[in-house]
Amino acid sequence: MTAEIVSVLAAFSSEFSRPTWKNIQVLLIGAILCRGPRRVSSILRVMGLASIANYSKYHRVLSRAKWDGLMLSKILLGLLIELLPESWPILIAVDETLERRRGKKIKAKGLYRDAVQSSQSNVVTSYGLKWECMTLIVPLPWCKRPWALPFLTVLAPSKKSNEAEGRRHKTSLDWTRQMVCLVSRWLTRQWVLVGDGAYACMDLALTCVVLNVVLISRLRLDAQLFEFPVFEQKKLGRKPIKGKRIQLKELLNDPKQIWQTDLVDWYGGEKRQIEYITFTCLWYHAGCAPITLRVVLVKTPDGKNEAEAFFSTNIDLQPAQIIRYFVLRWNIEVTFEE
C-alpha cells in the first residue's frame, strides 16, 4: 500500500480497533480493485487471500465489529470539503435510491417504484431496500462534469417492516429532515440542499430555514403560492398572513408578464437559452408558517412540459444560479448509475 493511500485512510483509523482497522484496509483496497459485485469473497480473491483459512474475520467487520458510521461520515465530509475551491459553495444533493433485494432474511425490504425501469407511462415496481443518500457536489480539474460524492447514506425501512418490528415509521422526508439536522451540526456555515420535486415539502423547507440551510427544489404548477399581505390600519381583527393566490399556470398565459431571456448551464454541460419570470412570494399551507421563496418560472427549452418552476428559500440568489444549482443535482443520478 502506497504512502498516499495510507495518508488518506489514516483519518478514519481512530474509529476502529487495531485488528478491525487492519481488516478494514484490506477490504477498502480490495473494493477499489474489484470488478463487478464487491462481495467480501470477491475482494479477498482480488487481494490474493482466496485460500486464507480464517476468512470469516473479514465478514465479521460488517456483521459484528462495532464502529460509529456517523462519525466516519463526518470525517469523510470534512475531507471532501477540503477539495472545494473557495468560490464554490457547499452544495449537497439528496435523493433516494433502490437496492434490489429479495429473500426472507431481508427484513427492511419493501415494494417500491423502480426509477431505472419505469417511465412516465409505465410504472415498474421492485422489491428492495430504499436508501436515502446525501452527496457533496465537487468540481474536479480533470473532469468537465462535477462529481456527486456520497458521504452519508441512511436505510429507510418500509412501513410494513417497521410495523412488524414495532417501530415508528419514518418517511423519506422524515429521514431527510433528520439528516439535515445532523449535517447542520457538523458544519459551521451556510450550505445548500438540492433535491428533486419530491423534496418540495413545507416541513423540510421550514427545517432548512430554521437551520440556515438553503433549499432548492422544483415546484408543482399548482403549488399554493401567495402574494405578500397588505395591512390596513383601520381594519379590525387579526392581521392577514398571506395575500392573493398566485396561479403559476395563469402567469404562463398572462400577456402582461414580461419574460426575460438568459443563457444558463443546462444538462450535459450544454448552454441553453431560456425564457423565465422570477418573483418573491409566500408558500403557505394551513397549519404551517408561511415561507418566503424566490420562484423562477421557466418555459421548458425542449418543450416536453408546459413549464418548470424552481424555488429557493434564499431570495437573494439569482435565477440563473438557482437553475444552475438544480441542474447540478443530476450528478447524483450519475453516481447511482455508476
User: In percent, how much strand structure appears in the residues?
Assistant: 25-35%
Q: Helix segment count?
A: 11
The end-to-end span amounts to: 25 Å
User: How can the largest sheet be summarized?
Assistant: 12 strands, mixed
Helix content, binned percent: 25-40%
What's the oligomerization state? single chain
Care to count the β-strands? 12
- Class of secondary structure makeup: alpha+beta
Q: What sort of overall outline do the alpha carbons produce when their principal axes are compared?
A: elongated
> What number is the mean pLDDT?
88
Report the order of strands and helices. Answer: HHHHHEEEEHHEHEEEHEEEEHH
Low-confidence stretches: none
Radius of gyration: 23 Å
Describe this protein's structure.
With 338 residues, the chain is an alpha+beta fold. It has helices at 3-9, 18-33, 40-46, 56-63, 69-81, 159-165, 172-186, 202-210, 248-252, 319-328, 331-337, and strands at residues 91-100, 110-113, 125-138, 147-155, 191-194, 213-219, 225-226, 245-246, 260-265, 271-283, 291-299, 308-312. Strands 1, 2, 3, 4, 5, 6, 7, 8, 9, 10, 11 and 12 form a twelve-stranded mixed beta sheet that branches. Strand 11 (291-299) and strand 12 (308-312) form a beta hairpin. The protein is elongated and about 85 Å long. The relative contact order is 0.10.
Task: Please give a quick description of this structure.
This protein is of the alpha+beta class and 338 residues long. The chain is built from 11 helices and 12 strands. Strands 1, 2, 3, 4, 5, 6, 7, 8, 9, 10, 11 and 12 form a 12-stranded mixed sheet that branches.
